Amino acid sequence: MSVVSQNNHGWVVDACSLIDRCYSPCILLRDSLKSHVKCRFKRQCFHIFKSHFSVGSSVNGGNSHMSEKTCKLSKRRKRKHSELNQGEVDSQAFHEKIRSVILEGTKSLVDSARSLGHLTEEADPVKEPLPFQECGLVALCEMAKELPLVDDEEQEEWVQSLVAEDGRTSHLDLFSRVTENREDCATVVSLMGEEYVIPAHTAFLLSDFTRIQPLVHYGSRFGLIVIDPPWENKSVKRSRRYSSLPSTQLKRLPIPNLASSDCLVVTWVTNRPSHLRFVRDELYPHWGVKVVAEWFWVKVTTSGDFVFPLDSHHKKPYEVLVLGRYSPSSDNSTSSLEIPSVPVGDQRLIVSIPSALHSQKPSLSEVLKPYIGAQAKCLELFARNLQPGWTSWGNEVLKFQHMNYFTLTPTDDETSKNCTTPSSC
């Protein structure tokens, strides 16, 4: 169970165990031969034992413990930035508004998790290096943009099977067709000369905005759409980890062509108030989405402390999610799914140990399940990994599916050979 504890403040989620459940059982395909393996995401990716900056970030007291050196640095930084710009003023005002919600809710949830034996791990003296794999498919995706666009009427098929009847995965068009893994097991396959772990009953399209039409022609209407935009910020520009996107470009996402009536739309937002205002006041109204709640993802260490000091001026230990419901216009009506009567509560927290891999978010599937119809189809936009039963789109959609992020071990367990889709991922 990935939700290890919950109360009226929200949930504590074990993101790593959820990933593992999505890949059990697993089949390894090599040279058309099948073998059964146990697949686990590498544990060191979630070994966050210490708060950053060597600052005590206890959920019991915010920033109550600071080293003398850190205090001096904080004072110098405060003097240097005594004159805040408007963005910084807005950020501070937003933080003060939600500070007690974050502090009190996190304390309650962490205490609940600890009573069940979770979030009690101390620092591990053995430090394993983090896996790293440059996603070569992103470069191929850029090259594919140079090819002429296929006319809608000329395209015979908008979808293809990951594994052919002969067990091979060659001759796949990853850039202009939606690829489906129709197997009942997660499958390790070779794509473009590299091995990737693909969950059961998942679909994906590797493309950017210029090649998104196969997703629209895929024919599915989704009851849940999760969006993780590559927001512009100074840190991303300096690190060049990924290509960012101007906020206004997000309006090009064809949400009305993808969403079913009453679809729950969830967008990850950075802590810049301008981004939050844009989503609430421009982006959602542009799509016909009504805001229903703001949630917060709170990042903690393995012992339950904030990964950053709660009042840090550099980075906060939380991120915002904006939840809304899509209502189609009268001339673009879609069949409505039966939506559960459970209200989407405001200011709920999702507390988890974050991945040490940049931009890897926890799955929201389990916490959002009560708010969507039982038969609702799920879609993630700007995805960097896959989930069973979901459709995913983005130019890095297979980033964290690369074999380098997993440990595979052979298994002779007969029960693992009976492939069944994970009940919840």
From TrEMBL:
Highest taxon of source: Eukaryota
Keyword Coiled coil: no
Compositional bias of kind Basic residues: 72-81
Presence of keyword Amino-acid biosynthesis: no
Residues spanning the membrane: none
GO biological process, any: methylation
Coiled coil location: none
MF terms (GO), sorted A to Z: RNA methyltransferase activity; site-specific DNA-methyltransferase (adenine-specific) activity
GO cellular component, one term: nucleus
Stretches the record annotates as Disordered: 60-86
Keywords carried by this UniProt record: Methyltransferase, Transferase
Family: Belongs to the MT-A70-like family.
The protein's name in its UniProt record: N(6)-adenine-specific methyltransferase METTL4
Source taxonomy: Eukaryota, Metazoa, Chordata, Craniata, Vertebrata
